[in-house]
Amino acid sequence: MLQYLYKLSKKQFKVIFFITVAVILYKALTPSSGEPLFYFKNMDKVLHASAFFVLSFLLNRSSSNIHKRIRNILALLGFGVFIEIAQSFTGYRDASVADIFADLVGILLFQLSYSFLKFQQHLKNKKISITPPSQKFG
Questions:
Q1: Phi, psi (5° rounding) for residue 136?
Q2: What is the rounded CA–CA span in Å between residue 103 and residue 81?
Q3: Closest Cα to residue 76, out of 63, 94, 91, 95?
Q4: Domain presence at residue 24
Q5: Distance between CA atoms of 59 and 14, rounded to whole angstroms?
Q6: Number of domains composing the chain
Q7: DSSP 63
Q8: 126 lies in a domain?
Q9: 63 lies in some domain
Q10: CA 49 – CA 43 distance, rounded (Å)
Q11: Which of 6, 11, 70, 85 reaches 20 to 30 Å from 34, CA-CA?
Q12: Does the pLDDT value for residue 94 go beyond 90?
């Protein structure tokens, strides 16, 4: 499946991003549909972090220079704040600062992962040799 992600254009990633935003917004503002299939403590926070990790990935693939990455972080965090404010007006959902923090964790986890992978790629492209000096000439 990963090989198909490399074939998608930035415009296609934007479309997927906005569809994902619409689905997340819908799920965040509609009443929950009963008990989940499984439950664990802080599952809601893990779902928030996961959703914003995915949103960060999609938005990053559709605009990927450093200035846009900073803008994307702030825009996604603003989206998380908007969701919490909107939930406070529904009557059946509660707003939570902890949810916003979980959103930020998901965003930052993606950004750190992405930066680490780009750094690894940079090192690989530079072909840095870690062979001990005694073995280079032998």
A1: -70, -35
A2: 9
A3: 63
A4: no
A5: 7
A6: 1
A7: S
A8: no
A9: yes
A10: 10
A11: 85
A12: no
Q: Among all chains, which residue has been given the structure tokens 């979980």?
A: 102
- Using only the alpha carbons of the chain, give its radius of gyration: 20
Dmax of the chain from CA atoms?
A: 75
Residue ranges of alpha helices (H) inside the chain are 2-5, 10-29, 43-62, 66-88, 97-126, 133-136
34 by DSSP, 3-state: which? Answer: coil
Range of the domain at 62: 41-115
pTM of the model: 0.81
For residue 89, tell me if it sits in a domain: yes
Q: 99 near 48, Cβ under 8 Å?
A: yes
Which pLDDT tens digit goes with each residue over 31-87? 887 776 677 788 889 999 999 999 999 999 888 676 788 899 999 999 999 999 999
